[in-house]
Amino acid sequence: MEKLKNYIYGQWVEGTGAGIPLYNAVTGEQVAISDTEGLNFEQALDYGRTVGYKNLSSMTFYDRGEMLKRVALYLLERKKKYYELSYKTGATHVDSWVDIEGGFGTFFTYSGLAKRMLPNTPFWVDGDTQKISANGTHLGTHILTPSEGVSVQINAYNFPVWGMLEKLSTSLLAGVPSIVKPSPFGSYLTNVVFQDMIESGVLPEGAVQLVCGEPGNILDYVQDGDSVLFTGSATTGRKLKSLPSVAGNAVRFNMEADSLNCSILGLEAKPGTPEFDLFIKEVRNEMTTKAGQKCTAIRRIIVPEHLIGDVQNALSKALDQTKIGNPLSRETRMGSLVGRQQYEEVLRKVNILKSETELVYDGKHELVDASYENGAFMSPKLFLNDKPFEKNISHDVEAFGPVSTLMPYKDAEEAAALAKRGKGSLVGSIVSHDENFIAETSWKMASQHGRIFVLNRDNAKESTGHGSPLPTLMHGGPGRAGGGEEMGGLSGLHFFLQKTAIQGSPDVLKAITKIYQQGAEKKFSDKHPFQKYFEEVEVGDSLETAGRTVTDADIVNFSNVSWDHFYAHTDATSLTGTIFDKTVAHGYFILSAAAGLFVSGKKGPVIANYGLEECSFFKPVYAGDTITVYLTAKEKINRGVKGRNIPSGVVKWLVEVINQRDEIVCVATILTLVAKQSPFIDLNVKNVQKILGGLTESTTAAWGKMSAQQMIEHLEQGVLVSLGEPEAEKCFTPEEHLEKWQDSLYNHRAMPKDFTAPFLPQDGSLPELTHKNLEAAKQSFIDNLKRFVVYYKENPQAEHMNFVFGKLNKEMWELMHKKHFTHHFEQFGLI
Questions:
Q1: Residue 484 main-chain phi, psi, to 5 deg
Q2: Which residues fall within 8 angstroms of residue 19, CB to CB, at 6 or more apart?
Q3: Any idea what DSSP says for residue 572?
Q4: Looking at residue 50, what DSSP letter applies?
Q5: Do 7 and 47 contact (CB within 8 A), yes or no?
Q6: Is the CB of residue 139 less than 8 Å from the CB of residue 27?
């Protein structure tokens, strides 16, 4: 039987011991062996701290985000084989989708967050700059840098893929190398996914390592700066947290433990209401998804005492209709537990629950294409605790399977009190349409819950469900649930980052943070900042504008245009007792007038006003005052764009408006979208002519079969097609892929060298030459390029078919020609 190899210190290593046999949860057949015997854990941790940390921490947050996306795309292309293995863990297709593609989705989510919200630097400036001196020559702020250590991640058996990827999403994005230690059960699935992550070649050396089997003494070697993330039982988690190596060093510890999560049915949600039906469906789903092996599953069903019988009957019927068996069968809605060992453990907990509460449902399901003897199957079990404030076993014992307990309550006060008797939960849900009941119950139970999920008819269609942790929201909970916090959007990165206060002069803080600070040196040049591409803009680039004297007419006109007739702008007789001496200019007029002074009217790389972050008005501006503006590049944020958007970044500009007395009257931060420099040539005819001057009959191609003249005639044919001469008869790209191909015209990725044009002869031959020589071909090409420019000026709405990209408009044809010309000019070494 094949042993699962471990990936440590940059190589695949097989254990030297007998290992742990791993079985198919459905058939009982052995699948693999996990073994960590003989591994040098001390060396593995040291390798992560040195090689892994150096490589990851030197990357920018933006680049780490791009790294996550590339890994997720690589895995997504190979998902079929993961599903085939997932079925062996007892998971149905739906269970597997949550685990496998839910894990990929977490990588995609964090990649998106990074590229939208994180800087293109290896550190992250946290919060505003603090002025800590009277004259502003001494400032302070905070930066976040990757914690200098390695993260040991110990995962549970129920989610072999998502469990790994949800932890890696934050640690890798933070720049911290990780050692993944999955539960042996199901680790054969983790192993295959991990192999592909390494095979992708995207992750830098030392970024991740994998230990498949028993953890051995790996935690004996953790030290200051390292972190441990644990998912599993609270008992085991507490033991690990108290280890001398963990407790005695500055080791960060995050625990996400099992918890007795609850769901509360509202007092008004009687049979026949949408909420009653939603409640039954949600509870059934949470009892049967992953066969109840979810740390977020509903273990306590809290129901109004007058509805206990109705809920018991409806839930029993719903569970009766849940087909259990082989996950490969289309009929199956619930698979098996992950193995016989877990089955025995759940059965032991069921017997403990029986000692104090009544088992009111124990469906004797006939299995679909499976047997109870060979697989780890268990039918759903529903208990009733008729006195939940006296019988505590339902609040203390968790059977980690398809097991849950009904319990009655009288009012919102009792519902919240029962919810909190779980002593700390990952999630609690409320199913009700009574907003007062929801509000009262939720805030009272919030202190003992990591997440509260409210479900009713208004959000049911789009709801993600009680048991679904989301990357953008915190996953964790207080008390029994471990007190941990995972994911939660960018907040999830803070666990892996060191926060450091930085103090110094404005110029020093600007140098460290790469963000302009008020009072730092400005850089003036003849080129207007708005005429610079994103790559050309430097923090500190500044512009001093001409002055503008504000008039009474300005104030009156702005009132009329904006309909802002606030008395301070229009009625001089009403100013007694105010801060104003006379009618004052509108604050937003000052901001608008400032924009009029600093914008460049000429078309340039600035695409659009992206937003306004901060705006403060410090002194009134009256008619007769003269305002001048200082515009300064404050911060640059790289930005991932997709679809039909021009590749661009966000530039934050500091706007400082002063009056004739050099007093600051307004400070604002505006955001602009600024285009990135295109790597493709412009369609300027003179520029193209100049490039073609270097093309001769003897110029040879770096790839492909074309001669110089064939290349020019090929480009000319493309230009003629864009004029409809002749109109292309068809597009060779399938309709379902056409939008993706058209979107690709907008990005800055070069055309592939190995692409075979579908309209050329399939035997690889090239069309016959139509011009007498190269010079004639060049002249004809230039003439038709001139015609192209004029044609689309006269016919801006024209559209013509392209053989590959479908029907294209003026903008798309220009983008296509830019890429196409560049591709072939590079082929012949002209650029």
A1: -90, 165
A2: 3, 33, 34, 35, 37, 213
A3: G
A4: I
A5: no
A6: no
Identity of the residue numbered 732: F
CB within 8 Å of 698: residues ≥ 6 apart:
none
- How high is the pLDDT of residue 760? 67
Find, among 122, 124, 120, the residue nearest to 636 by Cα: 120
Give the integer Cα–Cα distance in Å for 730 and 241: 66
Can you give the pLDDT at residue 610? 84
Q: Which residues of the chain have pLDDT under 50?
A: none
Tokens of 472: 């953008």
95 and 468 in contact (C-beta within 8 Å)?
no
3-state SS assignment for residue 764: coil
Task: Say if strands 300-304 and 403-409 run parallel, antiparallel, or are unpaired.
Answer: parallel
Both tokens of 498, joined, read 């060191």
CA 514/CA 61 separation, integer angstroms: 14
Q: Cα–Cα distances in Å, from 297 out to 335, 468, 474, 711?
A: 15, 9, 16, 64
> What is residue 558's predicted lDDT score, i.e. its pLDDT?
96
Single-letter code of the amino acid located at 355? S
Give residue-wise pLDDT tens across range 568-621. Answer: 999 888 888 888 989 999 999 999 999 999 998 888 899 998 899 889 999 999
Catalytic residues: 256, 295
Cα angle: 810, vertex 812, 814; to 5 degrees? 70
Determine how β-strand 358-362 pairs with β-strand 300-304.
unpaired
What are φ and ψ of residue 599, in 5° steps?
-70, 155
How far apart (Å, rounded) are the C-alpha atoms in residues 265 and 287?
A: 16
Quick one: pLDDT at residue 265? 98
Q: Tell me the torsion sign for CA atoms 751, 756, 761, 765.
A: positive
77 CB-near residues (< 8 Å, 6+ apart): none
Structure tokens at 264: 């509360």
The answer to whether 474 touches 487, Cβ cutoff 8 Å, is yes
Listed residue (393, 390, 382, 432) closest to 411, CA to CA: 432
H/E stretch holding 282: helix 274-288
- The reported pTM is 0.85
Across 592-620, b (16+ Cβ under 10 Å) vs e yields ebbeebbeeeeebbbeeebeeeeeebeeb
